[in-house]
Amino acid sequence: MTVRRKYEENFFRFLSFLFTAIIVFALVQIIWTIAKKGVPSLSWQIISQEPKGGYYFGKDGGILNAIAGSFYLAVSATVLAFIISLPVALFMNIYLIRYQRLLIGIRFFLDVLWGVPSIVYGAFSFTLLMYLGYKNSLGAGTITVAAMITPIMIRAMDEVVKTIPIGLQEASLALGSTKTETAYKVFFREALPGFATAILLAFGRGIGDAASVLFTAGYTDYIPHSFSEPTATLPLAIFFQLSSPIEEVQNRAYAAAVILTLIVLVLSVSARLLKPRK
Amino acid sequence: MILSRKLKDSISSKWMLACLSFCLLLPLAIGSGLVLKSLPLLQSHSLKELIFSEDWFPSDNQFGFWPFIVTSVWVTVLALIISIPLCLLSSIYLTQFAPKWVLKFMRPVIDILAGIPSVVYGVWGLLVIVPLVGDKIAPLFHQDSLGYSLLAGAIVLAVMSIPYILNMLLEVFRQIPVELGEASLSLGATKWETIKHIFIRKGSSGILSAFGLGFSKALGETIAVLMVIGNVPQIPQSMFDSGYTLPGLIANNYGEMMSIPSYDSALMFGALLLFVIIVIINIIFRYIIYKSELI
Q1: Contact A55, A256 (CB under 8 A)
Q2: How far is CA A12 from the centre of its chain?
Q3: Is A212 left (phi over 0), alpha (psi -120 to 50) or beta?
């Protein structure tokens, strides 16, 4: 009996270790595969040039249009999402702090919203665009991605603001400041380090998502100069170039995948470094 | 001076409230927008026909979503069959058996896995999983397969859903009171017996919710699955067959949907279907989590 129990204990200890190792191995395998395929085709030309004539038949050019487009899109979407998320997170924790049931309801709702897949956001925005008579553009893509990352950002910020003790709010109000001043001068400053993580998280989500911009941002060989122009994005650049039968073009897709993976790696490492120690 | 501060306060409060209401109204807007757009289709076809019919001929005005629904559910279930044991046992290892530094080391690993964009997973799937399924796994089962199959989609999806499920499971195991485990250990149970009989039972609702939410997350995944599953509108007979998922259908056809009548309506109906299913799953499992946190 005892031997069997000991055997079982060791077996599962080993099995659970093995499964953890498999997960680590999967990550290493993914990064290794992408790097092995993509790094050889990575060159200064790819990073620094827009596609030139005949690019999609393997001629000269690069994917600067997609890199720049992705950054424009992700940065403006993150800014827009921040403008909406900050007031909501502060409002929830200052004005609604006395209404715990309502607060639970709102958090519940935002969590559900988080689960909505990006393709649904994309399809909905596309319908709206058609209805309003607008074309695919950087602006439309920005709004779609912002709508998609806002719930993520609010919940991430909310988690930070939630930890601020209520005493701080009471002290600020007791000194005669209004709720707005409490929110933006006291709470905002207190939560700022934690916000950085929330912003990076949302930014990473925004730059990597393909399904939501597929409908809305369009695709172009040029770097957009205004919000009304269409824009290329890195995920779509990878997706479209990969479906080309020409090997040169496919290799550039792998190179683009390396660039996108690098950006995401940097983002997630810096998010972790910026996270305040508890 | 005081007046302007008060004014500022009232303007800012209203702005905050407006932002909040906007966020709360957004899903309603999405839902009703999609319903409005798919109404023309619902008027000419019955709901039963749309969902359960197998005939997908947009140019003949026949829209049967059944193959897409079946494939989506199949792929997602297969993916969960792969990722559930992985996530459950490794979350047990990380919280119960392993020294602290292993968990510290795993956090960034999970972060990065969660951060990798789905299109990169798709590239990886094309390079590694599709050949693996086509050349190695399918012959093992004496099947012919190009590799673009449900299984390939499921493996990619399984890896993608690991960080999501694992994070929730780690949280579940973290919340279980230490005393509970100590009581069991002091009664002579081994560590594994304690986990099996106490921790898993105590965390069962949390664990179930993690799987449920993982399911809904995987169901909505688009690009990565689209790249490896082959995109043939058919009801797959085995896991080595190609299929076509619902999100993939929407993503692949937006270009031509304006040229065929009621095609756009049909695709928006597909999006609506996806939206409704996922929101319902989310509500159910979030509610279970919420209930279990109260106890």
Answers
A1: no
A2: 36
A3: alpha
Distance CA(A151)–CA(A118), nearest Å, equals 12
* Residue A152 in contact with partner chain B when CB distance is under 8 A: no
Task: Say yes or no: A179 and A95 in one domain.
Answer: yes
Are B236 and B243 in contact, with CB atoms under 8 Å apart?
yes
Residue A58 pLDDT greater than 70, yes or no: no
State residue B290's pLDDT score. 82
| A56 shares its domain with A158 | yes
| pLDDT average, residue stretch A197-204 | 88
A 121-140 residues inside an 8 A Cβ radius of B = 121-124, 126-128, 130
Give residue A81's pLDDT band: very low, low, confident or very high (50, 70, 90): very high
Contact B233, B57 (CB under 8 A): no
CB contact under 8 Å between A112 and B282, yes or no, is: yes
The structure tokens listed for A272 are: 């972790």
Residue B63, SS3? Answer: strand
Of A8, A9, A154, the CB nearest to B23: A154
**What is the residue range of A26's domain?**
2-41
| Shared-domain flag, residues A26 and A109 | no
Query: Looking at this predicted complex, what is its ipTM?
Result: 0.89
For domain B56-294, is the CATH number 1.10.3720.10? yes
Residue among A91, A127, A265 whose CB faces B268 most closely: A127
Handedness of CA B36, B37, B42, B44 (dihedral sign): positive
**Would you state the pLDDT for residue A276?**
62
Cα dihedral sign, A24-A25-A26-A30: positive
